[in-house]
Amino acid sequence: MKSKAFLVVVLFLMWSVVSGWYFICKIKQACPSSNSELPTTAHILYDKGSATPKLQPTFSDFKVKLLSQLSDSNAWALEIIGLYDEDEVSDSATENLGVARAVGARELFREVPDGEVELSSRLLNFTADSNKLDAVRFRVLVRNDNVTETSFGAYIYYEGVIAKDTVPAKIEAYLTKLVKEERESLIEIVGYTDDTGGEQENFELGLERATALGDLLSELGFATERLIISSKGQNEPIADNSTEEGRAKNRRLMLIIKR
């Protein structure tokens, strides 16, 4: 009887741990970050608190491959993300250690024009015993006449309502990449229009376009429950509606990726 009681207690403890993990990580999406989430092979390392990059033996090959991607005909841009832990004591004059790391890493890619580089930072909890940190990320961003990928998501430009049989190849390629890379993220799709027509009509048109893009993402394999669809219609223009070029920029879909 004692052994059965002991087994019941063990099973209850195991259930408590697993259910707690599931609630925090899967439902609340609040798993703590750690170095276990980082690539096992780092091309650049940093001392704790330092913004000075230390190149590893793999860096040269990594740089060649990255520059090769940037030379692709799709008109790419390079995003450099500096990572930092709020517990680090920085040796940099720059207030944000992540930004300082991104700036230092940018110097390693002087071949890339300033207009094709974006710098940002991200807070990450490194493990307490980490002295050599894998604290920079590089992303090759899509930039073409249909897609402008950004640090928060992307702008998509398309005349009319997107359907699977009419979607341009450049948009489909980006969405396929998005489904593969952001499977665990939430994606908000916001539809915008120019100011031609009435405000209510434009709100409904923006919503129709956003819904159609969400349907296409779902068909490509993205979970419907991870999509948030909304519209702002003709509000919040980013260009002058008095010109055709400006109206074309305002007719857009904005994707906000919530990682």
Describe this structure in words.
This protein has helices at residues 2-27, 59-70, 97-106, 169-181, 199-219, 244-250; strands spanning 44-47, 54-55, 76-84, 117-123, 132-133, 136-142, 147-149, 153-156, 186-192, 227-233, 253-258. 34% of the residues lie in helices and 22% in strands. The chain is elongated. The strands form three sheets. Strands 7-8-11-9-10 form a five-stranded mixed sheet. The chain has a three-stranded antiparallel sheet with strand order 2-1-5, with no helix packed on it. Strands 4-3-6 form a three-stranded mixed sheet. The chain folds into two domains: 35-141, 60s Ribosomal Protein L30, Chain: A (2-Layer Sandwich), CATH 3.30.1330.60; 147-258, OmpA-like domain (60s Ribosomal Protein L30, Chain: A, 2-Layer Sandwich), CATH 3.30.1330. The protein contains six helices and eleven strands. With 259 residues, the protein is of the alpha+beta class.
